[in-house]
């Protein structure tokens, strides 16, 4: 189902940490939305700042000129509660935030989300925490991937490896990945060359294209979430990597999270681990049984295409919102 609703999409855009903003924008365009975007990372020239003012003034102008029915904000922490509350009074638009926060940032995110008409969180744990803090309903809308970006491709040379992890180095990840060096480990991302695993690092800060090539060259792809504390309670929410790897059709081994089973069938579409020993054993078994690894990857991609693209998410998010009755 298509929509012609006017939408203002506010988000940070780049080809690294915020690459998914571009993919969400494409999904909105494909759904037929009359779309205006506002880049929270844009740095206008001095002349443009003189003509249009600071970010707050430029955002106000974009809102008035686009006259949207819906304002969708991803990157809630970059807009203050008072700013959103003031902007809501300038138009008929219904304001929605799709919070991509995990439990590390939930306290700040809850405060920033207070001013919105509708709040979505990507994890059940974050949704429950924000709901309790604000005393209102917070819906769960998990992350997704664009299969035209994260797709199966053939790679070779520096991108080919038995086991791949791409992401920022942390002590938690270093401790787990140290168990896999004997299997042919390749690491991509910032910080690894300052760790004991420096010899396994093949690139510091991959672009989206390099990221896809790196994981596409893996026999087994590893997904280790960030954690709030090294010994804290297990978290539920899942990262973008869960859906990216599924979209690429590679066998994924991911740390067990409460929300994994909400999106994929464990054992048929991906494998999970709960500690370093289980990670090591699972990776060994998949490398020794490439047919099972292939089945996992194919199953995950089929599920992604069926349920977890950004077209699915944005269709749900946009079409479920009521039409505004009249200008404010």
Q: How is this structure best described in words?
A:
The structure is a single chain. The protein is α/β, with parallel strands linked by helices and 328 residues long. The chain folds into two domains: 6-144 and 309-319, 3-Layer(aba) Sandwich (Rossmann fold), CATH 3.40.50.2000; 157-307, Glycogen Phosphorylase B (Rossmann fold, 3-Layer(aba) Sandwich). It is built from 13 helices and twelve strands. It has a six-stranded parallel β-sheet with strand order 2-1-3-4-5-6, sandwiched between helices. Strands 9-8-7-10-11-12 form a six-stranded parallel β-sheet, sandwiched between helices. Helix 1 (19-30) crosses helix 13 (310-319), helix 5 packs across helix 6 and helix 9 (240-248) crosses helix 12. The chain is elongated. The protein starts with 5 loop residues before the first strand and ends in a 9-residue tail after the last helix. The mean pLDDT is 92.
